[in-house]
Amino acid sequence: MSKLSTILGLNARTQQFAYKYNSKRGKVIADSKIQTDRALSTAGVPHPKIYKKFRDPKDVLDFDWMKLPDKFALKPSRGLGGQGIVVIKKRSADGKGWFTTQKEKVTPNDLKLHTLDILEGAYSMGNEPDVAFIQEYVGRHKAFRRWAYRGTPDIRIIVFNKVPIMAMLRLPTKESGGRANLHQGALGVGVDIATGITTRAIWHGEQIINKPGTDTKLRGIKIPDWNLILSTAVAAQEASHLGYAGVDIVVHPEKGPMVLELNAQPGLQIQLANMEGLKKRLERVEDLDVVDAEHGIRIAKALFAGRFADRARMAEGVMTIGTEEEIKVVSGEGKKVKTLAKIDTGAWRSSIDKTFAKENGLLNRENILWKKVVKSAFGSEVRPVINIRFYLAGRRINTIASVSNRKGLKKLIIIGRRDLQGFLVKANDQTR
């Protein structure tokens, strides 16, 4: 696990992020699935359709339940932890009822009674009166069939300042009753933010490698439509008026990613699933001027990628390099440009000479992630931070680099220790 200082606790989540960045309007939207539906509809963000809303008992008794489709979900608007949700999978052969995802038969009378319980507040916070609704059935995408038990998996993404910060795939189990709820026994699987490939997994807060009771590995699951999932999550955060949000997304087998739910104070077990702290990641993007979803996703991939890729590189074995190495930098036109680089384990981030970057098409507007102000004895200067790809000792490295003036220096690029995982640097005198 990461250092304690990088972990986000309950108080820090509430005071430093949820309370500070989430508006009152945003909290109202997140606390009500009906309000969430309205906000997402207005913004054009894909989400499951609502077929019918029930606000009072008369609505329930007057409704023709047999006109409902073969598949649907009955939910409370202000329900907590998946409680009170009934998911219908198919109509019964006699045409007088349905079967749930747990193969239990229900009749219209069963659904009426359950809906009346919802209206009375049986599943809402503080048992306050609630609204019930019938929602489109999403189902299970074929990509998750090996890992999910009956129910629909979802992807929880923490989005802050238009940047996807961390992601977790939640897989229903037999214990959870087909629900993607960790407290009920679902699996939480960390996801590499750049690739959409799963890395680590937890069950009841403990690290696991395989799906319980099987030899099926949970690492290496490729989540479909990953870029679209990330852009949908950011769009939902913007539509919700929440600066800091947990966005739950499901992947419809035919329609693709849809927003299922919004959370103003998302749970923190996502840190265990990723074995990474949220606090440091949040602080790194807190003051950035993020233009739009595309920009936020590029920042996320540049800053938070690497866990999955690093392990892949480590599997190749440790390679010894010197403090001065010839590398090949991929230019804006895709050409490989040779240059000498300084291997500097004293620096965290890599940096590149401004003139070299400009000459090789790396300072194009679309390649600049953000700009930072750097203070030195010579005053303050604004330095761009860019995406960069280069080959070191035959290995391709995708990373970010700050742009500075290294005119007159022998090495036009410094490679920091952030990009040296899987390498052993041979100790000798480092030069400029």
Describe the structure.
The structure is a single chain. Helix 3 (33-43) crosses helix 6. Helix content is 24%, strand content 31%. The strands form four sheets. The chain has a seven-stranded antiparallel beta sheet with strand order 11-10-9-8-7-12-13. A six-stranded antiparallel beta sheet has the order 1-6-2-3-4-5, with helices on both faces. Strands 15-16-21-17-20-19 form a six-stranded mixed β-barrel. A hairpin with a 5-residue loop joins strand 15 (324-330) and strand 16. It is α+β, with helices and mostly antiparallel strands and 432 residues long. Mean pLDDT is 91; it is low at 312-316. The protein has three domains: 4-30 and 140-304, ATP-grasp fold, B domain (D-amino Acid Aminotransferase, Chain A, domain 1, 2-Layer Sandwich); 50-136, no CATH class; 316-425, Beta Barrel (Cathepsin D, subunit A, domain 1).
**Unreliable stretches covering 5 or more consecutive residues:** 312-316
Q: How many strand segments?
A: 22
Report how far apart the termini are.
Answer: 35 Å
Rg estimate, integer Å: 25 Å
Main sheet properties: 7 strands, antiparallel
Could you say what the CATH architecture of the largest domain is? 2-Layer Sandwich
Helix content range: 10-25%
Summary of the model, kept short:
This protein is of the alpha+beta class and 432 residues long.
Write the SSE topology:
Elements: H1 10-21, H2 24-31, H3 33-43, E1 50-54, H4 57-62, E2 72-76, E3 86-91, E4 98-100, E5 105-106, H5 108-119, E6 132-136, E7 154-160, E8 163-171, E9 187-191, E10 198-203, E11 206-208, H6 226-240, E12 244-252, E13 256-263, H7 270-274, H8 278-285, H9 293-304, H10 307-315, E14 319-321, E15 324-330, E16 336-343, E17 350-353, H11 354-359, E18 368-376, E19 379-392, E20 395-404, E21 413-415, E22 423-425
Helix pairs in contact: 2-3, 3-6, 6-9
